[in-house]
Amino acid sequence: MEKKMFEQGIKTALENSKKRKFTQSVDLIMNFRAIDFSKPEKRINVEVHLPKSRGKEPKVCLFAEDAMAKTAQGKVDRIIKKDKVTELAKDKKALKDIAEEFDFFFSEPQLMAEIGKTWGVVLGPRKKMPKPLLPNQNLEAIVKRAKSMITVSNAKGKFMPVVHVSIGSESMPVNEIADNAFAVYEAVKSKLEKGDVNIKSIYVKTTMGSPVKVGV
């Protein structure tokens, strides 16, 4: 499938979408066939680097103690220190609010065990458990890369033969959304045993809009 097919589908989806009071995301839906997803090795779980912006800046939260917390100032959206990890864990609503507000979580290695024990029940199901971050790593570069990554997966739950991911927003140029869509398509296709043969259909849609089939 060529990128121009994604451009055509996205253009149609945007033209057919009613204007809302918020900026809608543009989503990509891929349906699969002839794959036995009951087998763990067959399930789709791939990280994809989006070549263009998401249209919405993801938010990053860091669990860190004094030295790293100081270094991270201005590079992440929120810093939670060790004493707050335990304190916040007592408030389940606060945990859920934080889990929903932030897209990515990082942590100093020494805090990982406590976070797993107290925050894991909330972050785990959302696939947002923090990634360990060592003091000598380039925090700014890691955060920048994380913000361009998405996970395309049906590896948990009922293993339905479909994946559904956001690839941008309606405020973005069509060609940039298409670049992101094509990147996801290529990454997923490369993981399929029979490539395109295992892809039944592809659709694009805005948040509140109707799906538009890509290609024939």
Shape, per Cα inertia axes: globular
* Individual helix count: 7
Low-confidence stretches: none
The domain tally reads 2
Mean pLDDT: 93
Strand percent estimate:
15-25%
Series of H and E elements = HEEEHEHHEHEHEEHEE
Write down how many β-strands occur, each being a DSSP E stretch of 2 or more residues: 10
Fraction of residues in helix: 25-40%
Counting copies of identical and different chains, the oligomeric state is: single chain
Ends: how far apart? 10 Å
CATH architecture of the largest domain: 2-Layer Sandwich
**What Rg do the Cα atoms give?**
19 Å
The CATH topology of the largest domain: Ribulose 1,5 Bisphosphate Carboxylase/Oxygenase
Query: Largest sheet at a glance?
Result: 4 strands, antiparallel
Strand order of the largest sheet: 8-1-9-10
Structural class: alpha/beta
**Superfamily at the CATH H level of the largest domain?**
Ribosomal protein L1/L10, rRNA-binding domain
CATH class of the largest domain: Alpha Beta
Describe this structure in words.
It is a single chain. This protein has seven helices and ten strands. The chain has two domains: 3-55 and 147-213, 2-Layer Sandwich (Ribulose 1,5 Bisphosphate Carboxylase/Oxygenase), CATH 3.30.190.20; 60-146, Rossmann fold (3-Layer(aba) Sandwich). It has helices at 3-16, 66-72, 82-89, 92-101, 112-123, 139-146, 174-191; strands at 25-32, 45-49, 60-63, 78-80, 104-107, 131-132, 149-153, 162-169, 199-206, 212-213. Strand 9 and strand 10 form a beta hairpin. Helix 1 packs across helix 7 (174-191).
